[in-house]
């Protein structure tokens, strides 16, 4: 006991139960503090008895000279493990060495999107809704702002609900205070897409149209760019594709293919592009799910729906809509309903 007290006085900062090491790792000028807690991605555990055997004699350690940078923490761990063994408490102690995670930070995907941000514009619209109770009058005007992006042919895409019942539409480019008057070429209520154009040649100077990418797969990284509420400059949010299925489009009350992502989509993001990790546009942000039990559920119009809208306008000079199969269907999950039309309990498939 006397030796133990003596050791404690000589080394007041050492504690027998403190057997973890905190390491700091830096990634491209961004420092991340990594500890041996549950948040560490990769942890390697080494028994203290083995660590003490690796230390060698005091003379051999002196002959090595001053430890290089990165070995000082290892040397401190060896001294700490030997101190615990001398006190008789190191039989089952473990020395934990944290290994930095090799996961590429998400902001690297954003770097690939930066060259395409100049093609993202802010849309200002003045709306005047009709009064269906008094058709000879109109409701009071109101203004809104949303996002859009430039495509080929001197055209701009945004959401249909962003320019619905429009009286005046203006566009503003990134880094500019000038607002350019826009003309609405087509509105697709079903797919919630609208096409705009600007006659002023100055608007098209120094910008390149976005290129469309393939339909992303589940867990593919996506980056949403736009002008949501909370500020005047461009905003970037990142996430992944979490679901792909037929969705109910809130604006058109139709069901079309849609992508669910976990990137934040707020008011004002509507009409903004969603990029993949190559910087290509893979969709248009158009709606999000708001509920007290829901967080970060946003929806994107995929490129297949966008391509149909663009080709429809180029072919017909206007938006004509999506084809309908003309078939009504009903789920046959109720056993009484199945028996009423003569279906057996194991009968599956399509029946007419």
Plain-language structure description:
The protein is α+β, with helices and mostly antiparallel strands. The protein has a domain at 114-316: Thrombin, subunit H (Beta Barrel). It is built from seven helices and 16 strands. The protein has helices spanning 2-10, 48-53, 58-63, 72-86, 107-113, 303-316, 335-340; strands spanning 23-27, 30-34, 42-47, 94-99, 120-127, 142-151, 155-158, 166-172, 179-188, 193-198, 221-226, 235-249, 254-261, 273-275, 281-288, 298-302. The strands form four sheets. A six-stranded antiparallel β-barrel has the order 5-6-7-10-9-8. Strands 11-12-13-16-15-14 form a six-stranded antiparallel beta barrel. β14 and β15 (281-288) form a beta hairpin. It is globular, with a radius of gyration of 31 Å. It starts with a helix and ends in a 12-residue tail after the last helix. One of its GO terms (molecular function) is serine-type endopeptidase activity. Belongs to the peptidase S1C family. Residues 10-30, 47-60 have a biased composition (Polar residues). Residues 68-86 have a biased composition (Basic and acidic residues).
């Amino acid at each position: 006991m006397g030796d133990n007290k003596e050791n404690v006085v000589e080394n007041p900062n050492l504690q027998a139960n403190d057997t973890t090491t905190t390491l700091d790792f830096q990634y491209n000028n961004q420092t991340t503090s990594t500890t041996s807690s549950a948040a560490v991605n990769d942890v390697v555990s080494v028994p203290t008895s083995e660590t003490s055997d690796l230390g060698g004699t005091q003379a051999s350690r002196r002959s090595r000279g001053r430890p290089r940078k990165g070995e000082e923490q290892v040397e401190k761990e060896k001294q700490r493990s030997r101190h615990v063994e001398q006190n008789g408490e190191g039989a089952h102690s473990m020395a934990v060495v944290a290994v930095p995670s090799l996961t590429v930070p998400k902001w690297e995907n954003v770097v690939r999107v930066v060259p395409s941000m100049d093609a993202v514009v802010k849309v200002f619209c003045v709306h005047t809704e009709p009064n269906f109770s008094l058709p000879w009058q109109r409701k009071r005007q109101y203004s809104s702002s949303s996002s859009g992006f430039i495509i080929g042919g001197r055209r701009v895409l945004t959401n249909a609900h962003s320019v619905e019942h429009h009286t005046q539409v203006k566009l503003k480019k990134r880094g500019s205070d000038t607002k350019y008057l826009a003309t609405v070429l087509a509105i697709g209520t079903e797919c919630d897409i609208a096409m705009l154009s600007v006659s002023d040649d100055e608007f098209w100077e120094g910008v390149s149209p976005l290129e469309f990418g393939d339909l992303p797969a589940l867990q593919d990284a996506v980056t949403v760019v736009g002008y949501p509420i909370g500020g005047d400059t461009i905003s970037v949010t990142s996430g992944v594709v979490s679901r792909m299925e037929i969705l109910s489009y809130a604006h058109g009350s139709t069901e079309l293919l849609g992508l669910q992502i976990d990137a934040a989509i707020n008011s004002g993001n509507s009409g903004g592009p969603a990029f993949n990790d190559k910087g290509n546009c893979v969709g248009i942000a158009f709606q999000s799910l708001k509920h007290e039990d829901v967080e970060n559920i946003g929806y994107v119009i995929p490129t297949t729906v966008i391509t149909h809208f663009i080709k429809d306008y180029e072919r017909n000079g206007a938006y004509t809509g999506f084809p309908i199969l003309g078939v009504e269907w009903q789920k046959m999950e109720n056993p009484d309903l199945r028996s009423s039309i003569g279906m057996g309990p194991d009968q599956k498939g399509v029946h007419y």
